[in-house]
Amino acid sequence: MKMRPHPKSLTERMLMYQATGEKYSELHEQTAVYIYDYLQRLKHVNEDIKSDFFLALYPSFDAMIKNFRYSGIPFEHYVVFIAKKRIKSFIRKAQRNSFLWTMFQTPGFEILQPQSEPGHSTGDTTDFSDILQINKEGKITDPAAKKRFLCFALKQSRHHTDDEIGLIARITDYPPEWIREKVDVLKDKLSQQEHRHKNLTRRRNRLFISIRCLEYKVNHECDPEKRKELSALLFKKKATLAFVADAIRHIPLAPTHQEIAAVLEIPKGTVDIQMFRLKKRIKTALQTA
Predict the structure, then answer these.
(1) Residue 149 to residue 144: CA distance in whole angstroms
(2) Which residue, 114, 106, 100, 25, is CA-closest to 61?
(3) Is residue 120 part of a domain?
(4) Same domain, 139 and 267
(5) Is residue 66 part of a domain?
(6) Which of 137, 178, 195, 209 has its CA 20 to 30 A from that of 224?
(7) 66 is in which domain, residue-wise?
């Protein structure tokens, strides 16, 4: 027996569109909102990865709508199934390509400093100034590129010195005091996360030592009852270690897109788009260098 779509559900909007061919833009928008809300509920996925995945998936929404055929399975289940399947491969691909982004996020801005005299090559054909759209005068004039560079700069707030803040100001023409204020706000937020990261790392190390000691005792214990007790304790310790290690992995040591958006007083979606485009430019440039 086929399921009847709930009134005003995404499935009902889809069936109305298929029957009339009307209100496609409204259906497309509601589909985007539904997928975005679903991604926000994924607690185990990094916030910035969720934003990148949403933007990467967005061009596929047209195909999702056109390819859907109602057979009792709601459209909501259909789009979630696709999102679940694709986000797994997206995360694996992001992990494989993370070295490209990590390479570019050099603490400080050494990548922007001249590496050789004009007319001489250092052997590195990647022009990071070109990626960031910095002209020969060391300025960014395009407003979108300037906003993109500022988001990138604030992403590295943890490392910035006064000299680097001055360099950001010269490149963007933003007042250095204004940039320093934004960087300080983000550093304060990061200091709390760094403190938690340090405490959890210490706890992980203590657990690791405790587990090794328990393993030694289990291997050398002759009494079956005591061996059973030690094995049970060892199991609990290993479970706790796995939990702590997972918690450490999920502590962001760089500002999130949401935090950058908050200090700049702009929508988070703007930061998402600017960082997504910058990552695409970096990946293209490094792979073709």
Answers:
(1) 9
(2) 25
(3) no
(4) yes
(5) yes
(6) 209
(7) 10-104
